[in-house]
Amino acid sequence: MEVLKAYALKMEEKLIEWRRHLHRYPECSFQEKETSAFVKKQLENIPGITVFQSNVGYGVVGTLSNGVGPTIALRADMDALPIHEEADVSFSSEHPGIMHACGHDAHTAILLGAATLLAEQINHTSVTGTIKFVFQPAEESTDETNRSGGLYLVKEGVYDDVDMAFALHMCPWLTPDAIQVYKGPAMGSFDVFKGTIKGTGGHGAYPHLGTDPVWLLSQVLPALYSLQNRLVSPLEAAILSIGIVQGGRANNVIPSEVYVEGTIRCYSAATRTYLINEIRKAFTLANVFGGEGTCLIESGEPALVNNGEAIDVIVDTAKTLYPNDRIVDAPYGLGSEDFAYTAEKTRAAMFFLGCKPERGQYDLHTPLFQIDEACLKKGTTLLASTALAALQGGIDNEA
């Protein structure tokens, strides 16, 4: 492991170069054509790695094998967000309205680094097995079938032979001398509700002659907001947020219809099901007062449930390599992550890697997001070393 740590330090400039190139040319979900080509080219330059393209989207998978043994997957997401960058850096986005505001440029550079390290070292060890380097498109969004890149790769069979999988994520609230880990539910499930309330509409001067869907909405909203505050246990992690309310085009016309859209995030599958059912019921309150309320639910990724054995491998590796660094044991929040599909398929775990710069904190999904690039060499070392440790641990394929 110390050899990998030293090698990662030597290639730090290359890691920064890769990350800045990717940051300069971001691409949104299902549009990662040039990003994918860049990754494929870098992998093909690494001796011993076999590269193939995913059948769906722009996914790239590199495979490194050294005899018979377990198969470990390391995953990075490649897509950017539809956000206009405001960070004053020399390598800022050259694609207007698009930026790497969630650190996927760093994830991709780190995994390229891990592939480079492992290809250099694995033949010099007695470790046998296979490592897959999974570069995934479309983590941030879904297509018209409501599928993300992670779900596509699972259905394509990329993880069918994988015994254990690992991923990391940038963590802007921790500095590079820290990582955050958690066994069990660490990130939330994600569902979208789309509600419509219909009335008759009418003249603003004569509301009594019709049915006002805006007033009907005023009956529905308290029911929605009370779900997480009064009907779900305060010990349960659950969030309901409304992001869109649309209705009407003139101030003297009562509209005939109001549209509402929001999200639900949970750790528990039971709470998730309960909230979905109760949200549908809440919209039917409009029917009681003479209107018509309907609700459509679009189900997204499940909660990310980290496998305990995989977390142990990460923690043991981190303690060995960085004994003086902090390891924070806490859930990562209720943001969603489609690595959850991988965690449903095989034993998997994601850890959060501190990236907070010395000055300031730049949160995920914001126009000013930036990282301390010192995290790149550490992330590379941890991913590569964790993969080797998992292979060396003699993973029980029957577990």
UniProtKB/TrEMBL annotation:
InterPro entries: Amidohydrolase, Bact_exopeptidase_dim_dom, Peptidase_M20, Peptidase_M20_dimer
Limits of the Peptidase M20 dimerisation domain: 196-283
Cofactor binding comment, as recorded: The Mn(2+) ion enhances activity.
Essential cofactor(s): Mn(2+)
SUPFAM superfamilies assigned to the protein according to its UniProt record, in alphabetical order: Bacterial exopeptidase dimerisation domain, Zn-dependent exopeptidases
Pfam family, one: M20_dimer
Binding site for Mn(2+): C102, H104, E140, H169, H365
Key words, A-Z: Hydrolase, Manganese, Metal-binding
Entry keyword annotation includes NADP: no
Record protein name field: N-acyl-L-amino acid amidohydrolase
